[in-house]
Write a structure and sequence with these properties.
Layout lengths: L1 H17 L5 E6 L2 E5 L5 H11 L2 E7 L2 E5 L2 H12 L6 H17 L2 E4 L2
Antiparallel strand pairs: 1-2, 1-3, 3-4, 4-5
């Protein structure tokens, strides 16, 4: 019985570890940082900021990380955050749409950390 429980527990741990991280977004607009989802640690934010400057949109979508710095994507992302809508699923969906459009247009680049 203990062996079966140990096997079941091991299986659960493996399955949980295999799940991709949830989608997250970090919009850095000068002195303001917006985070949706899990966001990122302060150390990771500083690393990205050092490389891409004060204006960028970082996203983790479907297990992949992207960065966008172009004007159109930044305006669209700021527009999503400026709407008078409580943060939650609606805002997440709108930001996902901004990121997906940037990926399709080639203005968002895949990054590997």
């Amino acid at each position: 019985m203990r062996i079966a429980a140990a096997i079941l527990l091991s299986l659960i741990v493996v399955l949980l570890a295999a799940q991709p991280l949830p989608d997250s977004y970090v919009l850095r607009d000068g002195d303001i940082t917006y985070m949706l989802g899990k966001g990122m640690s302060p150390a990771a934010l500083k690393t990205i900021q050092h490389r891409y400057g004060e204006h960028f949109l970082w996203a983790r979508r479907n297990g992949h990380e992207y960065i966008a710095t172009d004007g159109r994507t930044m305006r669209n992302a700021v527009d999503v955050m400026q709407r008078n809508v409580a943060r939650g699923p609606v805002t997440d969906r709108r930001m996902a749409g901004v990121v997906d459009a940037a990926v399709r247009s080639g203005s968002a680049r895949a990054i590997h950390r």
